[in-house]
Design a protein that fits this description.
One of its GO terms (molecular function) is zinc ion binding. It is an enzyme of class 5 (isomerase). Component of the replication restart primosome. Its EC number is 5.6.2.4. The chain has 21 helices and 32 strands. By secondary structure, it is of the alpha/beta class. The protein folds into 5 domains: 97 residues, PriA, 3(prime) DNA-binding domain (GIY-YIG endonuclease, 3-Layer(aba) Sandwich), CATH 3.40.1440; 68 residues; 174 residues, Rossmann fold (3-Layer(aba) Sandwich), CATH 3.40.50.300; 183 residues, 3-Layer(aba) Sandwich (Rossmann fold), CATH 3.40.50; 91 residues, Alpha-Beta Plaits, CATH 3.30.70.100. The protein has a 7-stranded parallel sheet, sandwiched between helices. The chain has a 6-stranded parallel sheet with strand order 18-28-27-19-26-25, with helices on both faces. The longest helix has 22 residues.
Length: 723
């Protein structure tokens, strides 16, 4: 049998199947092969009777980690996103299966050998006291793990009894269960009539459902009830959440409800944990995959429902290789499986809501909170007026008073600022010098806790400045504040206040994200200060006040989504207040109080905001009425980047002449002109839907033909950031 094998090497030169000889095996099988003088693994994607080559190397069967359904999805993704075979296959297979060795974790278990007389053995060990202790210890039980014996009696003593043949050994598989601490008691929940109607409609149907529910309306209970019905029908389920919303609460809820049927997929897991969770799903022991976008590739069979919570979140789009949109992949997989796809959000993506209004999706609405109190009242504070009154603090008088009152009542507070660090830039007031990264065209952020300047693009650190390196002046100004500065000023204003900070700087260690949230939920802090990490998925019953600082910070970015994202963010953050039996309050600070985002946001009027925003998009011809396509060229040699960009631009002008006029096309430097030592240029287009499919193959071809020798070139569809 001739096997067509994709080898586990990600280069354009080998992005095709290679012929190997081997036994007949299922498509999707993993095989061990020799390729170009090296041992590696590969995946069988085709079979045939004959090869064009007279002599073939042999492929050795290992296992079958990829199903036929997943191979079909792989091919659909390759065609849609112009991806390499192996880059897509790796999405379905844990890293442990890219090695030939046994991926399972096994511990050595020792027991006394059969037929031994304990007293005779101990007499023979008269001069080896520790070895005697091991023998007597094992005689009182069935056996023990080698690691436990070594810790109790010493590795040398254990080696002694092994060498003398007094013990037998066996390898015991031990599952690596991630985040074991994330469990909670199950509470009986009675669904509201609206929730029950949503469950009934989703469970009985197929296609795409948009579940539009205000924050606190009980969407998670709807998800779990739908999944429960799917399990009862012998089906499986995938539950996707944004990585930053994968909280202890949601994991605890799912484990309390479904026990060991839940498998976790998360970037914070080590390779062994990821493999063991994957294996539980592959073997059918786990029926529910919970995780961020990678969970859409879970090895589940007979899928009944795929749920995407916070479906508007930008993290569902992969912006590094392989690039794909999780929602589109989920649509493909759900359609192939005949499963329902549920998109849930309090602030749906503009296109999703448009599809619902046009009947392409089935719209289900949850308009009321399930708690005793409805959505918290949102108060808008004009920071221009605060400045005029002489208030130079980060906190308006209104917010400071509210924090003090909440602390006095022993209630908790969340303060949101979507900027980490202490100061977002450092500038010399004498000459105007701004400290920038040597590898990236971005200003450095000051981190006071480490006393360093840090690049938030590449992570490089620099010594903090006491004098200007340009003019030698000592008048150094710190720019816009970050979460670190908020904590410092809060502690100065309220001495003794217990604070926790959650941002990318405080969550670098494994499980730190979960531990911070657990501590706050347990009352271990009075105030939680954080970036967008704190905006989603959290349910803290004792939080009655949310303060939103610099709510307009992202409002004027040169991005057509800036208003939408600001509305989504303030709505999500505001929803953290008043989620139990205590009334919530939200204080939003802005320098643009009359902007329509805040006018609609104040009353949580998503429909009003959507109508205003969708009309603007239609008039200006931005998505969802067009597709934005960017080709980004990056090179260590700037002239090479310029030449490649020019070639792509000219090629696309020729395409425009053949297929019809683009809404827009232009070539220029990228807004961040240099990143990680590479010069960056881009071609930006807006395409009408009717010509999109004809243009994209040409875009991909031109990008591949004009990749710089020392750099990269790739195309993005509706990129989440144009920076």
């Amino acid at each position: 049998m001739v096997l067509e094998v994709i080898v586990d090497i990600s280069t354009a030169e080998v992005d095709r199947p290679f012929d190997y000889e081997g036994e007949d095996m299922p498509l999707g099988s993993r095989v061990a092969v020799d390729f170009a003088g090296r041992h590696t693994v590969g995946f069988v994607i085709g079979k045939k009777e004959k090869s064009d080559f007279a002599s073939l190397k042999t492929a050795r069967f290992l296992d079958t980690p990829v199903s036929a359904e997943q191979l079909l999805l792989m091919n659909a993704m390759r065609e849609k996103y112009n991806l390499r075979h192996i880059d897509v296959l790796r999405l379905f297979v844990p890293a442990k299966l890219r090695e030939e060795r046994d991926p399972e974790y096994k511990r050595i278990y020792l027991a006394l050998a059969d037929g031994l007389d304990v007293e005779d053995v101990c007499a023979a060990l008269a001069r080896a006291a520790k070895q005697r202790e091991i023998v007597r210890y094992l005689s009182e039980r069935d056996g023990e793990f080698l690691s436990v014996l070594a810790e109790k009696f010493g590795a040398g003593a254990v080696k002694g009894v092994r060498d003398k043949g007094f013990v037998t050994e066996s390898a015991v598989h031990e599952a690596r269960t991630p985040l074991k601490m994330l469990t909670r008691e199950r509470k009986a929940v009675t669904l509201t009539s609206d929730q029950q109607s949503a469950v009934d409609e989703i469970s009985a149907g197929k296609g795409v459902f948009l579940l539009h529910g205000v924050t606190g309306s009980g969407k998670t209970e709807v998800y779990m009830a739908v999944i429960e019905r799917m399990l009862a029908a012998g089906k499986t389920a995938i539950m996707l959440v944004p990585e930053i919303a994968l909280t202890p609460q949601i994991l605890g809820l799912f484990r309390a409800r479904f026990g060991d049927s839940v498998a976790l997929m998360h970037s914070g897991l080590n390779a062994g944990e990821r493999y063991d969770e994957w294996k539980r799903m592959k073997d059918g022991r786990a029926k529910i995959a919970v995780g961020p976008r990678s969970a859409v590739f879970a090895p589940l069979e007979n899928i009944g429902v795929i749920i995407i919570d916070e479906e508007h979140d930008s993290s569902y789009v992969s912006e590094s290789n392989p690039r794909y949109d999780t929602k589109e992949v989920a649509k493909m997989r759900a359609a192939a499986a005949g499963a329902a796809l549920v998109l849930g959000s309090a602030t749906p993506d503009m296109e999703s809501y448009l599809n619902a209004t046009e009947g392409k999706y089935k719209l289900i609405t949850l308009k009321k909170r399930i708690s005793a109190y409805q959505l918290p009242e949102m108060e808008i504070v004009d920071m221009v007026q605060e400045f005029r009154y002489g208030n130079r603090s980060l906190f308006s008088a209104q917010l400071a008073d509210a924090i003090g009152a909440a602390l006095a009542r022993k209630e908790q507070v969340i303060l949101f600022l979507n900027r980490r660090g202490f100061a977002s830039f450092i500038m010399c007031k004498e000459c105007g010098y701004v400290a920038k990264c040597e590898d990236c065209d971005v200003s450095l952020t000051y981190h006071k806790s480490e006393n360093v300047l840090k690049c938030h693009c590449c992570g490089r650190k620099y010594h903090a400045l006491s004098r200007c390196p340009s003019c030698g002046g000592a008048n150094i100004k710190q720019g816009k504040v970050g979460t670190e500065k908020v904590v410092e000023e809060l502690q100065a204003l309220f001495p003794g206040v217990r604070t926790l900070r959650m941002d990318n700087d405080t969550t670098t260690r494994k499980d730190s994200y979960f531990r911070i949230l657990d501590k706050f939920a347990a009352g271990g802090a009075d105030v939680l200060v954080g970036t967008q990490m704190i905006a989603k998925g959290h349910d803290f019953p004792n939080v009655t006040l949310v303060g939103i600082l610099e709510a307009d910070a992202a409002l004027y970015f040169s991005d057509y989504r800036s208003s939408e994202r600001t509305f989504q963010l303030i709505t999500q953050v505001a929803g953290r207040a008043g989620r139990a039996d205590k009334k919530g309050r939200v204080i939003l600070q802005t320098y643009a109080p009359r902007h329509y985002v805040f006018r609609f946001g104040r009353t949580y009027d998503y429909e009003g905001f959507w109508r205003k925003e969708i009309n603007t998009r239609m008039v200006t011809k931005f998505p969802p009425f067009t597709k934005v396509v960017r080709v980004l060229v990056a090179s260590a040699d700037e002239q090479s980047a310029v030449d490649c960009t020019r070639n792509i631009y000219r090629g696309l002008l020729a395409v425009e002449g053949r297929v019809g006029k683009f809404v827009y096309i232009g070539a220029a430097k990228s807004p961040v002109t240099r990143m990680q030592g590479l010069s960056r240029y881009q071609v930006l287009m807006r395409l009408q839907p009717e010509i999109f499919d004809a243009v994209m193959p040409e875009v991909y071809r031109l990008a591949a033909e004009n990749k710089p020798a020392k750099g990269s070139c790739f195309a993005e569809i509706n990129p989440q950031s144009l920076i």
